[in-house]
Amino acid sequence: MGQQIDLIVGLGNPAPDYLSTRHNAGFWFADVLAAQYAAQFRRDRKLQAETAEIRISGQRIRLLKPMTYMNESGRAVSAAVHYYRFPTDNVLVAYDDLDLPPGRAKLKFDSGHAGHNGMRSVIEHIGPKFWRLRLGIGHPGPGRRERVVGHVLRRATSAEEQLIIDSIRDALDVLPVLIESGAEIAMNRLHAPRPDSSTETDGNGGDSRTG
Fold this sequence. Notes:
Number of strands: 7
Largest sheet: 7 strands, mixed
CATH class: Alpha Beta
Number of domains: 1
Structural class: alpha/beta
Helix content: 25-40%
Strand order of the largest sheet: 2-3-4-1-5-7-6
Strand content: 15-25%
Oligomer: single chain
């Protein structure tokens, strides 16, 4: 049985200085998804976001990029959920994840924020019962919080950036599978190990991050 998805959210920061940073991987995903389905984002002031609309496997899906900055992402997500009366079970949020290496993406339902301030905000506003699409950006290693902040707010190397884009394409490929065949089949395909896979964690821990 397929999974109903009504709303797909990409998390990021809207200012030009942030657009190419690792922290904006969720925005990248939303932009590539919209382009794939020939949709264009438009500003929606009542939702404090940019929105677009697509159809995948016959399902009407709204796309959302919060313009509230990362730490207040939940305000825009909550506004969309309440305005359209979407069940949170039918919401998918894409975001950057330190606990996965570049090139890996994972689907998950109902978990914590793992120190990600954007996810913290979303959970505070709509609760934890929604789908996550974790896009790996890698971890800078042990060190002070400032090291993590610098990592997420800098642009990835060209090789790592390509891996992140590859993981976005992998996730795009399984969206129709998620909608038509359900989460188990979609996750099995997306999570299949690659020969060059790195060690990764389950995302239940993590460092505090910036917005």
